[in-house]
Amino acid sequence: MRLKDKICVVTAAGQGIGRASTLAYAQEGAQVWALDINEAALQSLKAEHENIHIHAINLLETEKFSQFFEKLDKIDVLFNCAGWVAAGDVLASSAQDMQKSWDLNVMTMFHAIQAVLPKMLAQGGGSIINMSSAASSVKGVPNRFAYSVSKAAVIGLTKSVAADYVTQGIRCNAICPGTVESPSLHERIAEQAKAQNKTIEEVFAAFVARQPMGRIGRDSEIAALAVYLASDESAFTTGTCQVIDGGWSN
Ligand code: NAD
């Protein structure tokens, strides 16, 4: 059990990478608080493991989000997984796209970190994991302007927190996946197919074709990295962006 008795919080735990990571944390012995706006998804997640505790919340309701952390006496791991993909290049991006990307992809992390850091410092340490993306300062990806700006900010946020608290037992790392199988990916593929008058199979094939390994990633592969960063095995790792993209950005 690599996370035995650790108290973990995962945002966007209802589906995709957040869900896979929540399950992996629970299976490694952690008590996991799963947060998501989708209550039905949380209920089905809770049914999968007794170590999973759920809290339905809109992370953009800042006050309620910060208040959630007050009820935790201890927190060992914060996995800020929530994020939203805005499509479009700079000319196609609206101010609303920019604002929502900033609010959900960056500010939720800021608020969560402000809420947990005093507890982590008081208990002598903790691991913060922030979901970035290969589409960020790692790699320029077409039609991902607002998204990439926000995910690059996540890397800056991560490195800054890591530098400020490195002597106090706090570790902070970012995960930068390439394209990963998830419900939202399939929604994006369907939208793109409609917009480009293509079949879903054609658009999916185009996603796969840009992958050097000839396949996209699995949520379980990202969850395995999230377990490592949460565990004491990664005690010497902080301030990093862990690129996990099947060689896409290489
Ligand atoms: P997803 O996008 O399919 O699911 C996101 C979850 O977030 C959903 O359960 C949704 O209900 C929840 N959510 C959305 N808005 C919320 C809000 N305001 N409050 C609370 N919950 C909210 O999951 P995914 O594709 O695995 O993506 C998870 C993270 O990984 C995101 O940050 C994403 O940017 C990042 N990422 C994903 C990929 C990919 O290809 N899937 C690649 C790189 C990075």
Question: Which of globular, elongated, flat, extended, rod-shaped describes the shape?
Answer: globular
What is the CA–CA distance across the termini?
33 Å
Structural class designation = alpha/beta
Overall pLDDT confidence: 97
User: What topology, given as strand order, has the largest sheet?
Assistant: 3-2-1-4-5-6-7
Name the CATH superfamily classification: NAD(P)-binding Rossmann-like Domain
Helix content: 40-55%
Instruction: Report low-confidence residues grouped into runs of 5 or more.
Output: none
User: How many structural units, i.e. domains?
Assistant: 1
Bound molecules: nicotinamide-adenine-dinucleotide
The whole-angstrom Rg is: 17 Å
CATH topology label: Rossmann fold
Could you state the order of secondary-structure elements as H and E? Answer: EHEHEHEHEHEHHHE
Q: What's the number of helices?
A: 8
CATH architecture grouping: 3-Layer(aba) Sandwich
Characterize the biggest β-sheet.
7 strands, parallel
